[in-house]
Amino acid sequence: MPPRKEIDASADVPAFYGAELRYRREAAGLTLEQCSDGSFRGLSFLSQVERGERRMTMDLAKHVDGKLGTDGFFERRCEDVRKARMAGHAEYFADVAEMEEHADRIEEWAPMLIPGLLQTEEYARAVVRAGRPWLPPETVESQVAARIRRAEIWDQEAPRPAYWVILHESVIRRPLLEPGPMAAQLRHIVEIVQANQGVLQVLPETEVAYPLMMGEVRSMTFPDAPPLMYTEGVHSGQLIDYPPLVNEYRRSYDLLRATALSPRVSLAMIEAAAEDYENAVQQQE
């Protein structure tokens, strides 16, 4: 069982919600295992909800209300927590955004776009506009601000999550921005990776067959909870916690990094590409 963690109920809505859940569960004399028994969620999931690290799902809220006799209290609060957690993120990504704050290791594979944790504001804005050009300007700015807030984990006091990212070379060679901003974006990647002792690899375009060819993948491990995988498509995402499937994804990720260029060569490639974009700016002047 994960060690008990004290909850600051004033931190945010989910923390308050989690603290209330723990208080009512203990007042009822139930353990985490007893409270989760009969639900579709495991003990670790309920523990993360109590610590304010995961959003309670509606099915679990109904189950807990039944177990604790709380007259629909947790079911009614589900919508409040959902809104607090989304904060500019797509609903399917809300759980991922909240959990990365508590991860001790994050590993990403980015075959088409620079990951959100490494994006500059200008790059994030271009991604949002390109993906959903019909969004009103205020929604675009809300989503951009949410992505930039996520990167605040690089400014937090230690321990920060260990970070490993693999980029496809096309992300560097086919710029989403004009040369000047693209150079700044690549310099930003190098700065973040080096400042956090992260590991970055580039999968060369010459590799035509490799693991995880079908899309973006992210792995998160935690000090007191099982690892998770997240995959994302165009307008949807899936959080995976089924252990055998998580292990399959992790094996594929290990093979992918074995296929990619070394961290030293990869960083040198990104720095050289940034210099090329900077030279292009000078030639235009």
Automatic annotation (TrEMBL):
CDD domains xrefs: HTH_XRE (cd00093)
Gene Ontology molecular functions: DNA binding
All residue ranges annotated as the DUF5753 domain in the record: 93-271
Full protein name: Helix-turn-helix transcriptional regulator
